[in-house]
Amino acid sequence: MAMSDAQKRAVAKYRKNNVKTVAVAFYPGDADLLGWLGEQQNKTGYIKRLIREDMERRAGDAGTGEDA
Predict the structure, then answer these.
(1) Nearest 5°: CA angle at 43, between 9 and 13?
(2) Which end of the chain is more exposed for a tag (fewer CB within 10 A), N or C?
(3) pTM flag (> 0.90)
(4) Neighbouring C-alpha atoms within 13 Å toward the C-beta of 65
């Protein structure tokens, strides 16, 4: 079922006010990173999972005085 114009406007307004977008640039030297990311089925989910794992690891390291 197609969205009505009002629904499209509502979705656009919601995204404008609530969704943040981050762009990442890959230089030719980063081809291996870009290739690896390209192999991931859910790129956004993969990146978010890596960030969450890093946050948890750093929170655990906070008590040891180590810096990742």
Answers:
(1) 15
(2) N
(3) no
(4) 0
Element housing 17 (H / E):
helix 5-18
Distances in Å between the Cα of 9 and the Cα atoms of 17, 20, 29 are 12, 18, 40
- Helix (H) or strand (E) holding 54, with range, is helix 43-61
Domains of the chain, residue spans: 5-61
Both tokens assigned to 52:
């969450």
Length of the chain: 68
pLDDT tens digit sequence for 11-67: 999 999 999 999 999 999 999 999 999 999 999 999 999 999 999 999 988 766 666
